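COURSE: Structural Biology Practicum
ASSIGNMENT: Worksheet 4, Part C
STUDENT ID: 0417
INSTRUCTIONS: Below are two proteins. For each, the amino acid sequence is given first, followed by its structure token string. Answer the questions at the end about the second protein only.

PROTEIN I
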Amino acid sequence: MAVAGAIFGAAFGGWINDKYGRKKSILLADILFFIGAIVMAAAVAPWMIILGRIFVGLGVGMASMTSPLYISESSPARIRGALVSTNGLLITGGQFLAYLINLAFTKTPGTWRWMLGVAGVPAVVQFFLMLSLPESPRWLYSQDKVKEARAILEKIYPANEVEQEMQALQSSIEADKASEVSIATVSFQNFGTVTYHFGLNAVGSIVSMAFVDRFGRRRLMIVSMFGIIVCLIALSVLFYQASTHAPAVSSFESQHFGRNSTCGSFLKAYEPSNWNCMSCLKASSDCGFCANGDSKDCTSYLTRRNGDRALDCQLGNISVEIQRHWRRDRAVSNWVSNLIVSETFLTLTEALGSSGTFLLFAGFSTIGLVAIYFLVPETKGLQFEEVEKMLEKGFKPSLCGNSKEDDSK
């Protein structure tokens, strides 16, 4: 529901951005975050948690497109990429911090209410800090507030560069045609990217901060896509090997807690002695397993009636964390892709197996790699206006990351 809310938040946020500015859009996102957190913390029924998740999703959708937009429009071109990457690093750091905070609340009275409600604290902090920040100079200029835009640019750029930036803003507002093109080209990457680990994500963000303004966005995107494809293929092989060498299911342990607690498919199986842990997952969405470290066998469970027990299940000694990988992008299609991945992942694993599902995502990532190569130009060190002019002329890819026109020069 949070992802579904983010779809509408991104769409609605685009209108708010254009109508009322980037600053007010972020402030509204903070309010939605806070309302959602309080509603979830005070929930007396599941529908309240669902409603709170929708509010949080609306805020996520608005913030995900507005924050990097605000940063990029309010920062010098020479460090813009690093600052936007910093935003991504802080998002990743926030996710890791959330795990630690939740861990701290596991033994606290109220447990999940605190876990959900504490999310309102950073929203309040950001709301009041945001009040002290200026509006985007690019948006101000588009609203004919030229003097205010100049005043902000004078705080960002050296005095000898302000006039040049003002002229660039003027050209940009008069010919703002590139945004729709740039939106459409990035969404492929999001669909194929569904797994991450905090450490690797943080390292990737730091590397991006250090090199994005030196080597360019396009080159790093291509390298990162290669890394994503390799990791997804590795996960596919890992799950295939885990499936092949999965521990056997113990009939004794499976029926120890009663036949009503055991997976029905296992009880009706012609040769249950041939079952292993993965057989439970493939049999039905109602079936799960728990590993037994002592006997090296596993136990078949009916997950609907033993949900708490099924949560303890492991695949041997391998622990894999699967998360939605939220990309910072202005396109609503990214959130649609997130929703599709979230809603179909378990169905895909049931139909294709875990190995086949990750291999399918690797295929989507390969399509994304091809799309990035042919559709995404290099924008390193360029002003928005220069990007627009480049896209108007047309972009032809080359192996080194520059357009063929630039290479000829």
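PROTEIN II
(use this one for the questions)
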Amino acid sequence: MQRRKTVSRALLMGASLLLLSGCVTSSPLDALPVVDPVNQPNDELRRIPPPASKTVVAVYDLEDLTGQFKERENVQSLSRAVTQGGAPMLIKALQDAGERRWFTVLERKELENLLRERQIVTEMRRIYKNEVSIDANVLPPLMHAGIIIEGGIIGYDTNIMTGGIGARFLGIGGDTKYLQDVVTVTLRAVSTKTGEVLTSVTSRKAIASYALQGGAFRFVKIDELLEGEAGVTYNEPKQIAVQSAIEKAVEAMIVEGSELGLWRFADPHAGAAYIASYRQQKYGNRFTAAAAAPVQPKSSGPVEVAATVPSAPRQVTVTQRRVPASQARAAQQGVPARVTPAGGSVRQVPGVGFVPAEDASDIRQPVDSNPPQLPPARQADEPAVGMNRGSDAAESEVQVSRL
């Protein structure tokens, strides 16, 4: 009997090990990748009433300004507490506003890559197609925005609220614990024309974490003990919390921008109802008359952007002219040739030719690289120049004429 129990325990242990090894390779908790589903903050952002016209905005970055690192017990961690991908989240939120009806977002985060790629297009067409100027239909001008959307993650506070509750009776019971963190995001719209901060908003999102567990510990018989436990823990991903806070900030910026006249709703009645709902959510019973009529920014028409229209390439006409012989000789001697402008006064410079009168003073006389040679020395039996000695007078005159 004892031997049979030992064999049964060995078989049970082997089956348990097989189950554990199977869980390592394939777990029921594993899931296939899915597209990010629409949550409540994103759904509210998509349901904003459409605008009268789209606004061109530029996003450079949304930095992590908290400076905090992940907390670990007895271990120093260099990983950041919050995500560093704020800019992609902000771009996605601006595109989701009103189902892509509110903003035209321009790429500025990786502007260097964009300019390098355009330079490659220009160089390739210059090398292989001999193009001096690129056709605007092939490489049109870059768009520019009237408003820049900036901001950052300015706060991440941990253990804002902690607590729990539990109960146990006769060795059977359970308990639950919860923990809450808060992340804070700020956004601002800046006018490209004047640099004025048109509007600034702040949003917060709580990050919830909880644990639920239960267990039993009791003697079924005098020599038999029943013990079991089960539990589950959930930690909300921090990047999802940051994304939700950014989406709420974009929604708030749209409403407050419409109050300031930066943009307007296509349907005034739907826009007024949406603004009233936002004010109730933001102010509650603290809404004042001054908040109903906010002070307008000094920048006029900040969203209006003049499009860059490519101008027609200038035609360059090359006229061939006959170069005078004097100018050609001056060019060979190193003197720069001058072209006489039409209708201008000219002046003749020896050795150069006719040049503009205002440039004649700058021209130097050409220097002959071969200086004149001196006459040969007089021989001993040769009479001096100018002396007449009978029959040698004619010969002397010939020599003088030769000199």
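ANSWER KEY EXCERPT:
Q1: Confidence is low (pLDDT under 50) at residues 315-320, 337-343, 389-403.
Q2: The CA atoms of residues 231 and 390 lie 147 Å apart.
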